[in-house]
Amino acid sequence: MRTALCPGSFDPITKGHLDIILRASRLFDRVVVLVSVNPDKRTAFSVAERVELIRAVTGDLANVEVDAYEGLLVNYARQVGATASVRGLRAVSDFEYEFQMALANKKLNPQLETIFLNTNSKYMYLSSSLVKQIAAFGGDIDDFVPQAIIEPIKQRLSKGVSK
Prior knowledge:
This protein is α/β, with parallel strands linked by helices. The protein is about 40% helix and about 20% strand. About 30% of the residues are buried.
């Protein structure tokens, strides 16, 4: 069974993230969407909340699981038998960081391959940070996040700004 990881902070998950997860689910037998825990990063949603938001939008994908991990990706990959890490690329600036991480991960775990998927062009501008900023000011996030999680995001992030 070929297992891949789709790691990220997913704070919150966007349609761009979901597109990468869906595409990875067609390429691998098992995909683990891994909420990475970084204690130095301030997030809008707790780890448990992010896991639940992801489960809410991936529940219909039989070969997709959701988990969280605090530690090195390469160690988690060994624990679950993953042979690939799938990363989405929006722009050249993403590639530079992701390439550096891929090389470091390969050095730490030679069995772990990094697979880069180009973002669908309609999501090239999309990021969790953008979603948070728009939601905080009462903007419409319907085109940016899956329908099932719009309300929880709005409730958490809206500062009560009138439209």
